[in-house]
Amino acid sequence: MAEILVVRHGQASFGADNYDELSDLGRKQGQLLGETLRAMGWQPDRAITGSLARQKQTLEEMGFSVQAEEHSGWNEYDFHDLLHQRFGGQAPDDVITDRKTHFRALRDTLAEWQDGGIQSARETWAQFTARVEAARSHAAACDAERILVVSSGGVIARLVAATLEVPDRQMITLNLQVKNTSLTRFISSKRRFFLHEFNSVPQFHDAARAELMSYS
């Protein structure tokens, strides 16, 4: 059986012109996770990221020597595009820059998207779910025993929801709970694929490090 460890990227640059860059905190989170995994004796045989900078930067900060592969199925859905399209082409400034307003709007937007709405978006819900499944199949189709994937919260939530066969709406709730650099672990074999651990943050399990935990 193979162990597939899916990590959410470190904190990105929320509200900045270029969101797709790790913040200083995000880089520190990646470093701590790498240190923690090595202290646990966990080293990947294979590493995969999407094509997003924040995913690649997180893997770099973790400090493993394995050569990374890239599969765009691990990319996050384009939440900026979804929000802009839902609001007629341009979302209000506070929807993009204010965290509470942003996540309230995102929850409603994802529900509408799942129901077939926001037809002007670059990607449909069906296309998103299909590429996540393609990414999962690609990661599982190898002889490696320990596979490290760096992805994003929406993809991780979708993969968990699909594995547990829960309603699509539950994916939204899971999505908004996924912490930066959290670990979600799956076990894979030729016949089985199941969830072993969700949203774990062993790198933050002391008082000082707990202050470095973030959700966006």
Give helix and strand order, one letter per element, not per position.
Answer: EHEHEHHHHEHHEEH
User: What is the CATH class designation of the largest domain?
Assistant: Alpha Beta
Radius of gyration, in Å, reads 17 Å
Q: Give the CATH topology of the largest domain.
A: Rossmann fold
Distinct helical segment count = 9
The chain-level mean pLDDT equals: 95
Overall SS class: alpha/beta
Helix content: 40-55%
Query: Main beta sheet, described?
Result: 6 strands, mixed
Fourth CATH level, the homologous superfamily of the largest domain: Phosphoglycerate mutase-like
Strand content: 15-25%
Give the total of beta strands.
6
How many separate domains make up the residues? 2
Name the shape in a single word.
Answer: globular
- Order the strands across the largest sheet as they lie in space: 3-2-4-1-5-6
CATH architecture of the largest domain: 3-Layer(aba) Sandwich
- Residue ranges: pLDDT <50 for 5 or more in a row? none
Q: End-to-end span in angstroms?
A: 32 Å
Structure at a glance:
The protein is α/β, with parallel strands linked by helices. Helix content is 44%, strand content 16%.
List keywords for this structure.
216 residues, alpha/beta, Rossmann fold, 2 domains, 9 helices, 16% strand
Question: How would you characterize this protein structure?
Answer:
- With 216 residues, this protein is an alpha/beta fold.
- The chain folds into 2 domains: 2-72 and 129-210, Rossmann fold (3-Layer(aba) Sandwich); 78-122, no CATH class.
- 44% of the residues lie in helices and 16% in strands.
- The protein has 9 helices and 6 strands, in the order βαβαβααααβααββα.
- A 6-stranded mixed sheet has the order 3-2-4-1-5-6.
- β5 (183-188) and β6 form a beta hairpin.
- α3 packs across α5, α5 runs antiparallel to α8 (168-175) and α7 packs across α8 (168-175).
- The longest helix has 16 residues, at 24-39.
- The protein is globular, with a radius of gyration of 17 Å.
- The relative contact order is 0.21.
